[in-house]
Amino acid sequence: MKVALSVRGLTKSYGNVTVLNDVSIDFYAGHLHALLGANGAGKSTLCKIISGLVSASAGQMSLGGGDYQPGSKQDAEASGVQIVQQELNLIETLSVAENLRLASLPNRWGVLRMSELHRSAREILDRFGLPDVDTHTIVGSLGVGKQQMVEIAAALARDARVLILDEPTAALSGSESEELFTHLTRMREQGVAIIYISHRLEEVQQLSDEVSVLRDGQLVTTEPIANINREKMVAWMSSEEEADDDSSQPAASFVSHRRDEVGLSVQGISCGMVNNVSFDVRRGERLGIAGLVGSGRTELLRAIFGADVADSGHVLLAGGEAVRFTHPSQAVEAGFAMVTEDRKQNGLLLTQPIRANTSLAALATKFSAKGWIRQTAEAESASAIHASLETRCQSLEQLVGTLSGGNQQKVAVAKWLTRGAEVYLFDEPSRGIDVAARGKLYELFEELAKQGKTIVIVSSDLEELFETCDAIAVMSAGRMVTKYERNDFSEDAILEASFAGQESQLTTALSDDKWQNEEAKP
Amino acid sequence: MNRLQGFLKQLAPHLGLVAVLLVLVAIFSTLSNNFFQMSTVISIANQVPDLTFLVVGMTLVLIIGGIDLSVGSLLAVSSAVLGVLMVNYEWSIWAALPIAVLVASIGGGVNGAISIGFGIPSFIVTLGMLEIARGATKVVTDSKAIYIGSRIEWFGQPLPGAFVSPAFMFAIATVVLGQLFLTRTVWGRYCIAIGTNAEAVRMSGIRSAPLCIAIFAISGMMCGLAGLAQTSRLSTADPNAAIGIELAAIAACVIGGTSLMGGRGNVIRSFIGVLIIQVLQTGLAQVGVSDASKQIITGVVIVVAVLIDALRTRWSRS
Amino acid sequence: MLTAIITGPGPQRDLTLSGQVSKSLNNESLPMVQSACRSKTTTIQRVVCVAAVLALMVTGCTSSNSTSQSKDEGNEKPRVALIMKSLANEFFSTMAKGAEAHQAEHSDQYELVVNGIKDERDVSRQVALVEEMVASGVDAIVIAPADSKVLVPALRRAINAGVVVVNIDNRLDADVLQQENIAVPFVGPDNLAGAKAVGDYLAANRKGDKVAILEGIRTSFNAQQRLKGFEAAMKEANMEIVSSQSADWEMSRANTVASSMLSEHPEISAILAANDSMALGAIAAVKSAGRAGEVQIVGFDNITAIRQAIEEGKVLATADQHGDQLAVFGIEAALEQLGDSSDSVASIEDVETPVDLITSETLSNE
């Protein structure tokens, strides 16, 4: 076996906080090496050092036998080390083609050669298996999942000796993930060393050759996959106490708290691609919504919440009043809360402290005395809620942007728990979150259900919905096609239902010129 | 001991800025025999109110992610209204002042309503208001300076035995109120949140539009008060008053660490920015350096002040 | 003392700061700070306290030596502050250079501080300059006011503070001076007479009867005087003023205004500009209107650029009010008054400085 990249004694400290401590790993050419670890375990830091985004405080790296010290991401890319980060690095206002070729835009004396640009971009996308994405499309108008695929395609298009993927499947649907895995297999055959971060353990089991587990900045172990099973992985990742905790197995202990009264009734909502969706959720019920990325699940939640104004339809509140919200403030007033999919863009104030983020939605209702902020009450409330959520932070004054993904999500959730609501809408709540934080979140769902709250959970992770929900509704191409009760849960059935709407979408799409062009191509 | 530490910790972020100010004072004190004395302090205290009022409003506007280029013109409008009412119509200052401040506030409110209501960048809207209000000033005053005299002069002159003018005390009170508004009220918190991530604020169920419009109106109101301060200092309503002052106000805010991208700012620090600019102006005038050097030095100090602060922040973070 | 302020009722009392600061603090002013800071402190209170302490440090340590300093100065050479308008304007920078040259020759007699403002409209800054100069303890102020009215109250305060004030270049408004109950000697040319001489010369060499006037900033006394001089000359010669607008003393404004005048009134045969900068702007406007040589232009001030234009025949005449000497005349008047211990009102007299007509003939005679 040939070592492609070797790191020795890598350490990274910020002030007196050490986030990565003396880590040494060999990555083999042609192998897929999975990195596992809870939030803040140091996985992302390690990858950032390897890809030249941050520099190590101590330690050496060698690439293909030679000394390797990338000064910047450009350096690393030139040496053949490519990274696809969890946060998308695409420029939303440019087209797909321009993003794909951004580092080397085809030009003649500075003038863009548009035909060459789109031809080469088309080639990259086709090679990657995205024939349905038009290279002229503005990236911002694509869904998050599609954007991620474009970004991965861009990285794969560059010459890669080492490819780092940080949670690539978090925003991808099942079929998109399969697509990605095919490519990874092919790259592996070509001798590329792949470093793969994921919280989906079955993916790791299915794909990887070796697994390294990090905990609190230290390397716990590196093992070939043959020596590992799921239980071992979880045990290594969690500290001893957490390993005893059976929160990682809540499925075994599912208790329904569903009551008789209806908590939320959605009636004929249409908004953009969301097409006449109706459903009821009872109090104490946890309703999951499954579907492919782009099936309109986020759009549905946004329409219910008033973030987008629905074209038609309305929401029946518990009191029987029919409303169509035109601004989230009305929804919040009526007892709704929505934890958004994209935390950074529309959920959190990254450059503000945890305390300010946590109290934001409840500031006027709970912490105000004639407009003055009751600072002590604010701090105490934030302190209590983060203690119960086990948010890992130095203090409540730490800026949210400096937290790991899972802890950021806890802050986003804490904001709504502080405000208090009757109906909770969660959009991809565990995206980019480690096992422990996920377990915490599932406990919270149950606690809210016990209190008789109404809960809607949108997730691309079927396993998650299986574990946490009373019922799962499936959306496909903007319609809600079916709903399964807990005893009827079946992965096959739900996947089938997810694709059910696709055919009808084609017929409606034929009226749309852009799609028509795409169809005309073989 | 803990209290001392806590206090020093709170003070620490401002030390860079205060150091710049003290260094300037030290430099001018060595260069000129006549700088480090009471009369200079009084003279500086006498001159800062106009810019101080503007900077309180400007800081808030910058924090919500806007900008107000019309402050100089709105100042002139309020000054003109004050002058015309007090001289041509012989109103008392107490009758004329509310009208003058109201006119400027409405100007600011219009800025906000158009910019927020129609989603037009405030840069453009207030640039328009800069011209409109200046034109209106010339209409109101018939392009002539209106001499008011002692009926208004007392407000801008040191009180007997108190060293500082009512305008200065009023300005300081406004700075303190502005800082309390920003750090201690729900609306101040919302302002910071809006400037940081307006969409997250919306998705938290908060209506930001009325607040943002109010902030622009407050900026207008501050222009009205600045108009009073300047008119009383000059004893005259000058139609050409405060041309270009918006850049000084923005510079003071930026020196004070206010982000032009929104979400970050501090009224007291902006006020220190005003002091830095004023000490520089007074000191250079007393030393009597050439006009060209004055401009170069002023520019250098603005950049260096911001630079020192940025470096200090970076240094304390690592 | 100060330790208590910072730490509150803590045991920590041995900070080295306290000794130094309390020495420099003025004794009477201390109880105030003490009481303000003793109470339970919030952040804001702390900030205010620190500001108060800083202010007292500054004021405290200076109030003692400021008096002695100004006494020292008084026994030495007098300090004269020259406050100009925009030094970007050649007329004023020439004036300032003339003053500096004069001071260099007479460095044993007085000290000079020269300051200007960034443009003619920055009146507020000029008022601030007056206050700053008084604050720095100058003995005399020689000022070219950017506005005839706005500067008067500030100058009154300067006079009340015992500073000798001399007005040059642009005469202060008589009404306001009266209302403020002060007299300020004016040292400068008779702008009206100068403008009239220029206007008369134009009338004698005219090519037509319709003329336009480019005025200065209307609020300024000079602008008014020059306008009156032009108007008087035109009236005497029976010439008609078809348009008279302000171009704010500026070249580019003048260019715009003159261009629109020429298209509005094509019959114009001459443009009278109240200063040379505006005359230069008018030359360009006439040229771009395709009427070079047909429209006569006169200016005022005799700046360098205009002399060439006169030699080339683009400008007919200008007036030289000996700008380089104007400030010197003012300084001499101020020094004279400082030396005059009688301090009587009778010593406050206006001084008229000469104005000469400049034409291509006078230039070739030089």
UniProtKB/TrEMBL annotation, chain A:
Listed name of the protein: Ribose ABC transporter, ATP-binding protein
Organism in which the protein naturally occurs: Rhodopirellula europaea 6C
Pfam families in UniProt: ABC_tran
One annotated GO molecular function: ATP binding
PROSITE patterns: ABC_TRANSPORTER_1 (PS00211), ABC_TRANSPORTER_2 (PS50893)
Listed transmembrane segments: none
Gene3D superfamilies cross-referenced by the UniProt entry: P-loop containing nucleotide triphosphate hydrolases
Keyword list, A-Z: ATP-binding, Cell membrane, Membrane, Nucleotide-binding, Repeat, Sugar transport, Translocase, Transport
InterPro entries assigned: AAA+_ATPase, ABC_carbohydrate_import_ATPase, ABC_transporter-like_ATP-bd, ABC_transporter-like_CS, P-loop_NTPase
Automatic annotation (TrEMBL), chain B:
Keywords: Cell membrane, Membrane, Transmembrane, Transmembrane helix
Membrane topology, from the record: Multi-pass membrane protein
An example molecular function term from Gene Ontology annotations: transmembrane transporter activity
Gene Ontology cellular component list: plasma membrane
Superkingdom: Bacteria
TM spans (from-to): 12-31, 51-82, 94-120, 167-187, 208-229, 241-260, 267-289, 295-311
Location(s) in or outside the cell: Cell membrane
InterPro entries recorded: ABC_transp_permease
Annotated protein name in UniProt: Ribose transport system permease protein RbsC
UniProt organism field: Rhodopirellula europaea 6C
